[in-house]
Amino acid sequence: MRIPLLILLLAIALLFNFQFIDPALAAEASTGSAIFSNHCASCHIGGANILVEHKTLQKSALSKYLENYDTEPIQTIIHQIQNGKSAMPAFKSKLSEQEILEVAAYVFQKAETGW
Fold this sequence. Notes:
Blueprint: H1 5-17, H2 23-39, H3 41-44, H4 59-65, H5 73-83, H6 97-113
């Protein structure tokens, strides 16, 4: 199922503002952070990868290992979270679309700012 384009554009607009986080956006960032902590940090603490060391959540690794990351980073991260790959499980039945969008936005923002 595809995320509506409007939600995707809103998420991207919000991401560019995360570098200058104001109180209203801090709550949005903390939601993605909380979801990440609960579902992702056991393998990806601090943007690392405990199972496959070189496939981190650093921007350079995401760009290298996720197809289309350079042209559609948010959608690519969403796809990875939803479907998983190799050792990473799929989360589409464990997280809502909104939760996936929030954690994808969080991962993108952290990758852009260097974890």
